[in-house]
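Entry: STAS domain-containing protein
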Amino acid sequence: MNDTTQTGESHASGMPRVPLRPKIFTALAEGYDAKALRADLVAGLTVAIVALPLSMAIAIASGVGPERGLVTSIVGGALVSAFGGSRFQIGGPAGAFIVLVAACVMQSGVEGLILATMLSGMLMMVFGFLRLGSYIRFMPYPVTVGFTTGIGVIILASQFKDMFGLSLPGGEPGPILPKVAALWDARGTASPMAIGVAVATMAMIVALKRFAPRLPALLIAVAVVTLITALAGLPVETIASKFGELPRFLPAPALPDMSWDKVSAALPWALSFTLLGAIESLLSAMVADGMSGGQHRSDMELIGQGIANIGSALFGGICVTGTIARTATNVRSGARSPISGIAHSAILLATMMVAAPLAGSIPLAALAGLLGIVAWNMIERHEFAALTRASRGDAMVLWVTFLVVTFRDLAEGIVLGFALGGLVFIRHMAELAQLREGSAPAADNPEAQDPDVLRYRLHGMVFFGSVARLGTILARIARWPRMVEIDVGEVSFIDSTGAKMIATLAQQLQRRGGALKIVNARPEIAQALTAFGLDQAGVEVSLK
């Protein structure tokens, strides 16, 4: 079950390219017997129990009907497992998408959302075929903590309306600050019954997770609260009272309107869905790798996620992504292959066909309480505090990402956090690059004792980030017409900007009657230097 010998990423790690082959083929080729099937069916049942209430709750919080959440888990979940690059990934609607999906529905309607979901699937497939999966995984940890925490705060705020049974005749604003203001203004319409249902649901989930962690806390809590609410006839809003009775079958597949005007309007949303979906899915796959000891295929995972989003949109579903909690449940439940994910989707379909009327009795306050727990768990309090104390750079990336995601825009927060993280890294690497006087000349070097030879040793990465500081020092060196010898044996990397800086130094020395000599160069460093004509300029470059 350990796939590390087959699945190392190619261009990012220097290993051979991984074939674009779904992981299910690898699992079946290893030998699949009745014992493995039983393990996958048990894991699939366990995950389905977790996914049933969660899928409906996420869909409702996203501004669409609960049936679309079930369709997403059934169709999208099966396709992720069948075509993805992870052995244990479970696909479906995710809490991280609530903010984006709700904003898309508010602006473009459900039809616009479905079209954006389909376009996102196409873009993900393109990313996979272009082998961009490994690069998408290079996300700074402060960015992931910042945007996950920001999403958790937004989701938690979005559940207060149903938790407290508030009435907002003008609708609930999207941005968090106007939302909180509107909820506060409507505090007089709070329903004690709804509050009791939400609190009871949350208390039961917390108690079950603490004292009976092996039991499906989410489903049990929602089922018990729903039963008590129905038997007592409590006046609370339910799924059926707001959305009508849930359908018992999947809808017929249909293409959305793909006129140019519709596509151009949906494309910005599709780009946001693609960016978030790729990050969320690959993070989830990496979590599964850490728990199982395997290794996923990043590019194939993106292709599988793309196929799943296209399939979900065809059946009227919403965005599909890898779900960390359900994937972790799948691993802990003893899954052996992607068959467990397909089984989870089949069990959800069977449940939809048999128990759809019963699901209509679920109180919205109970689902809000469930999502409240999910959102609270998404707020990574300990990691947030640790990164705030870690370093000034990490703290800045963390807080900028968190604040922009929470109060501005999710996609902007990720892009800005990533860019800021890159700048922090560049500055750190630039500070490690140093030019020191003295070197260790070879014993056969005739100039070893020559006082007219200035010797320097270059350390670290010589690239565009460190050129400004190093270039100032080298410019001062070039003022004296002497032989300058630079030991580059401890240079780990040099880019074109760094090579050009050294070439400029050689030209300046030549004009003043001096000369430059490069010693202890590794082959790749020597190649980068000679590419800028140092050998033609009479600069001697000796290999290490």
